[in-house]
Design a protein that fits this description.
The complex is a heterotrimer of chains A (235), B (243) and C (256).
Chain A (H helix, E strand, L loop, with lengths): L17 E5 L7 E7 L2 E12 L12 E8 L15 H15 L10 E11 L4 H15 L8 E9 L2 E4 L3 H4 L6 E9 L5 E4 L2 E2 L3 H30 L4
Parallel strand pairs in A: 4-5
Antiparallel strand pairs in A: 1-2, 2-3, 3-5, 6-7, 6-8, 8-9, 8-10
Helix pairs in contact in A: 1-2, 2-4
Chain B lengths: L2 E2 L6 E2 L4 E4 L4 E2 L3 E4 L2 E4 L3 E6 L2 E6 L11 E9 L3 E5 L6 E4 L23 E9 L5 E4 L7 E2 L3 E4 L5 H5 L4 H10 L2 E4 L4 E5 L2 H17 L5 H13 L16
Parallel strand pairs in B: 4-8, 11-13
Antiparallel strand pairs in B: 1-3, 2-7, 3-6, 5-6, 7-8, 9-10, 9-12, 10-11, 12-13, 12-14, 15-17, 16-17
Chain C lengths: L2 H11 L16 E5 L7 E7 L2 E12 L10 E7 L15 H16 L9 E3 L3 E13 L4 H15 L1 E6 L2 E11 L7 E8 L2 E4 L3 H5 L3 E7 L5 E7 L6 H20 L2
Parallel strand pairs in C: 4-6
Antiparallel strand pairs in C: 1-2, 2-3, 3-6, 5-6, 7-8, 9-10, 9-11, 11-12
Helix pairs in contact in C: 2-3
Classes of the chains: A alpha+beta (235), B alpha+beta (243), C alpha+beta (256).
Chain lengths: 235, 243, 256
């Protein structure tokens, strides 16, 4: 039996419901909340601030440090032990790379910009939700930034190409699945994150990335609205 | 053929298109990509002739030469004091620039400024590596005793001070408080308790409502209501910006 | 005495707090939001002024302790994540986080809020383990009180998942909630110079001499205490602090 209809009735290019808010963590220099389906992420930016230990400092420009963390109760199964596991460390690293290229940190030699991403609940697409929140938080922190970054997972479920896979689709058992988280800049559609689990042909992959581009545009609109809402004081 | 696609004072976000064509050029906070100009941060658009700039609305303080800031003494060294500037970079207050009096070799430096003291100082140098020097030899630069210190969004400091210091003068006049607004987003305030709270609330109100037009009048009315006193002759002719 | 402390003591003499409220007022806004995490079996978020604390409950099934074969158990953890304040750094729990978790744990445990026998599934074999995690989302002081309230609210929000054939079906929640026998509320009273205050901001908390966390149930029974801070307390101060805590617990209880 092939997958021809998404189990929750969404169209192939349809995202789950989204929600975004900027300025949610008072203590931070910039912060944001992003929710897509049942996955939600908070991101807080601190900095530029001084960086210790000193050997981490870069005298040429500021460095970006990202940390992705699932809260202990954010998984659909057992409690997750606190502390960064290998998965969280890897996601932190790819998150950092997905955001770095839009930032200009030349003015902050020896300093650091810290981004903390925390997820209170997850149901697939958590790294992408984290990147969406972090991108807004960095903008909120007033940093020089040439573009926003939006992220979504795309892929195939059976023979169907879809965007924003949910948990059931990731776990689809009656055919091949490919889960491809992508992050893109808005103006130039540069790909800043690309990973994949599963199996897919080159042709399908390129089509999936193309769908990701359109989906990222929809996410961008939500991010943009949230940023403008905070600064236009339209609350 | 150039076309500016945003309005003066419009709030823009990173990557937002500001103008098309080569007749306009990007100033601070914006950048050119091929023929177009985009915003390089979240901020407010200002169009100055053919230049488009984006002024930040948020973000941490960055030390700038000439800024008068409120700093906290965090260390005493052989050559002077190290002070915390409410930014990513601490600053050095060298002996020779620390007071107008002569400091004897081997004097107890903590008798001038002790660790934990807050001082009003002026930034005299910032190197490319962000080594920062401050000095306290100008009038008005001093150690702060008593009163309280609180922080505000550093990007709102110009609005709190007002044109030629008009806004802060009005608050001082209405509340009788002594007030120092540091460019680094720290504010010192000292006065009678109830009036201190009025001054703090007023400054927080300016911080929150600075983007809504008619600010000066609104703040004047607010102060009059809180203090139950009419404010006389509050115009933009008050010159003293420092305490 | 630091400048800030002498300033605060002076202000307290006049009956005011740093943020302008009266000396024993609890901050506004003060809200409790339930169900903030759909993956948790129960969750809640408490906002007290600028302090925001989230608590989430997960359950597991394990073998009861040999000396209590007919009882389940609870575990409370706390994380002071760097997202919530520039004061906090990533890494294993600091003593501040450990103390926070233990004080909240003691309030729940010693008030007998939970009847551990009701958590038993099969004597000597299987019992529910209730794991509660406190996460500070924005720190502006008063973490003991906000956390204990968040945990209590998360327990009230809780629904057990289905358990069959030795497996928990986390996605299938039942109607069965957590039966709370008592509702312990922690109120921490701080001493600043000669004055006693509650619900401090971080700034106020930093200059306080001592604190006493007093957890009480609705009838005023004290079920947990924790003294903190560098300075000692006098007996009459302790007595006053308890009176204040019982009074303020009523205010916090109303929001549940």
């Amino acid at each position: 039996m092939s997958y021809t209809q998404r189990h929750d009735g969404r169209a192939p290019d349809e995202l789950r419901a989204m929600e975004a808010k900027v300025g949610v963590i008072k203590n931070a220099d910039g912060s944001a909340f992003f929710k897509i389906g049942n996955t939600s992420a908070y991101a807080a930016v601190y900095g530029p601030r001084n960086l210790y230990p000193k050997f981490l400092q870069n005298p040429d420009k500021g460095i970006l440090r990202c940390s992705y963390n699932m809260l202990p109760f954010s998984g659909s199964g057992e409690r997750i032990r606190p502390g960064q596991n290998r998965r969280a460390k890897e996601i932190s690293m790819v998150t950092e790379k997905s955001l770095l290229s839009v930032l200009n940190l030349d003015e902050y030699p020896n300093a650091v910009v810290d981004v903390f991403i925390e997820l209170p609940q997850t149901e697939a697409g958590s790294r992408c939700a984290g990147i969406c929140a972090a991108s807004m938080a960095l903008a909120d922190a007033g940093l020089l930034m040439k573009d926003l970054v939006s992220a979504v997972s795309v892929g195939r479920v059976g023979d169907m190409l879809v965007v924003d896979l949910d948990y059931a689709e990731e776990a689809y058992e009656d055919g091949p699945v490919a889960d491809i988280p992508v992050a893109m800049t808005h103006n130039s559609s540069e790909v800043t994150l690309l990973q994949m689990d599963g199996e897919i042909s080159k042709d399908m992959l390129m089509k999936a990335v193309e769908m990701g581009k359109a989906a990222c545009e929809k996410i961008y609109e939500v991010q943009k609205e949230a940023l403008k809402k905070k600064y236009e004081g339209a609350e | 053929m150039s076309e500016i696609v945003v309005k003066e004072k419009e709030i823009v976000i990173p990557g937002q298109l500001l103008a098309k064509g080569m007749d306009t050029f990007p100033a601070s906070g914006s950048y050119r990509e091929k023929e177009d100009i985009f915003s390089g941060r979240v901020g407010v658009v200002y169009i100055d002739g053919r230049a488009i700039k984006v002024i930040p609305l948020s973000g941490a303080y960055m030390p700038k030469v000439g800024d008068v800031i409120i700093a906290k003494v965090i260390d005493i060294t052989m050559s002077g004091w190290r002070v915390e500037t409410n930014s990513a970079y601490s600053a050095m207050l060298p002996l020779k620039d620390a007071t107008s009096e002569y400091i004897q070799r081997g004097a107890d430096l903590s008798s001038y400024y002790a660790i934990g003291d807050h001082v009003v100082c002026k930034i005299t140098n910032v190197t490319s590596q962000k080594l920062v020097d401050v000095a306290m030899r100008d009038p008005g630069l001093k150690k702060l005793s008593g009163g309280r210190i609180f922080s505000v969004n550093t990007n709102k400091v110009p609005r709190i001070i007002g044109k030629k210091g008009s806004m802060v003068s009005m608050i001082k006049q209405a509340t009788g408080c002594r007030i120092v607004v540091g460019q680094n987003g720290l504010v010192w305030i000292q006065g009678e308790t109830d009036n201190e709270f009025i001054a703090v609330d007023t400054i927080k109100k300016i911080e929150k409502e600075s983007h809504i037009s008619g600010l000066t009048n609104r703040i004047k009315e607010y102060l009059e209501e809180r203090t139950q006193k009419k404010l006389e002759g509050v115009e933009e002719n008050e010159l003293h910006t420092k305490a | 005495m630091s400048e800030l402390k002498s300033y605060l003591v002076d202000l307290l003499k006049k009956g005011k707090r740093l943020d302008g409220r009266n000396i024993l007022d609890v901050r506004a806004p003060f809200t409790i939001e339930y169900g903030v995490s759909s993956t948790a079996e129960g969750s809640a978020q408490v906002t007290l002024g600028d302090t925001v604390v989230m608590a989430g409950v997960k359950v597991e099934v394990g073998t009861p302790y040999p000396d209590q074969p007919d009882q389940g158990s609870i575990m409370v953890g706390a994380e002071l994540i760097p997202l919530s304040s520039p004061r906090f750094e990533a890494g294993p729990p600091t003593i501040e986080a450990i103390e926070l978790a233990r004080v909240v744990d003691r309030g729940i445990r010693e008030s007998k809020a939970i009847d551990f026998k009701k958590l038993c599934i099969e004597v000597g074999e299987k019992a529910w383990i209730i794991i509660i995690d406190i996460v500070v989302m924005n720190d502006d002081g008063g973490l003991f009180d906000a956390s204990s309230l968040a945990v209590l609210a998360a327990l009230k929000d809780m629904k057990f998942p289905e358990y069959a054939d030795g497996k928990i079906e986390y996605k299938k929640k039942t109607d069965k909630g957590m039966e709370l026998e008592k509702e312990p509320i922690a109120v921490t009273v701080f001493k600043v110079g000669p004055h006693l205050i509650v619900d401090p901001t971080r700034e106020e908390e930093e200059v306080a001499d001592a604190r006493l966390t007093i957890t009480t149930t609705v009838d005023g029974t004290i079920c947990a205490l924790q003294k903190g801070g560098d300075y000692p307390l006098l007996e009459e101060e302790i007595s006053q602090m308890i009176d204040i805590a019982i009074e303020k617990a009523k205010v916090l209880r109303e929001a549940l």
